[in-house]
Amino acid sequence: MIEKTRQTDKSMRHRLELEKRMPYCFAVNKDIFTLIKYEKLGKTTGYVVVDANDTVCNREVAVAVYQQALHLHRLTEYALVRHHSLHSHDSQMAERIEAELALIQPEEFSYSIRDEAVATLACLQIFVTNQRALDVHLKDMLLILDKIKEQQQITSSDWSYLTEKTLAIGNLAYEQIQYLKKYKRTN
Questions:
Q1: Three-state SS at 48
Q2: In the chain, what are the domain boundaries?
Q3: Which of 11, 12, 82, 171 is deepest in the core (most CB within 10 A)?
Q4: Tens-digit pLDDT profile for the chain (187 aa)?
Q5: Which helix (H) or strand (E) holds 44?
């Protein structure tokens, strides 16, 4: 009776484990491999790398595929987090600022605060410009990720494009923050 209970318990635990195949494949030495992630109750229990015939590959290939997957995750993590958490807020703020900037004329300010008002307007214009550029880069990155999922493989041009976009997004976000900090310190 106890043995049967253990078998039932083991099979029930196995049923809790989910197998998630990555939506794209990785190339190592011109061979195509798929990374399979196993999860149990929301926690990762392991990874397996298989070839096109669903045969488990050797350790060196598995490490190379896993490193590619990790590299892809690192390239896209910041952009995706920024897109999901800040994108709509920052973009809406940029739209509102842009609408207000169109209405404001620096000549309308009194002479005593005109220089400060012009500097503030310039800072806001730079924020809007950088935010527009960030939005474009984020959309480009999401499009390339959709393309990768659709073609179910990552090409070398995709790697270089993702790297370029990640660097551009990081640089623009850094510039935006540094400029706003610099402006805050001067005023």
A1: strand
A2: 11-64, 70-186
A3: 82
A4: 455 545 555 565 666 678 888 888 888 888 889 899 888 887 888 889 999 888 898 999 999 999 988 888 888 887 777 777 766 777 788 888 888 888 777 777 777 777 787 888 888 888 888 888 888 888 888 888 888 888 888 888 888 898 888 888 888 888 888 887 877 776 6
A5: strand 43-51
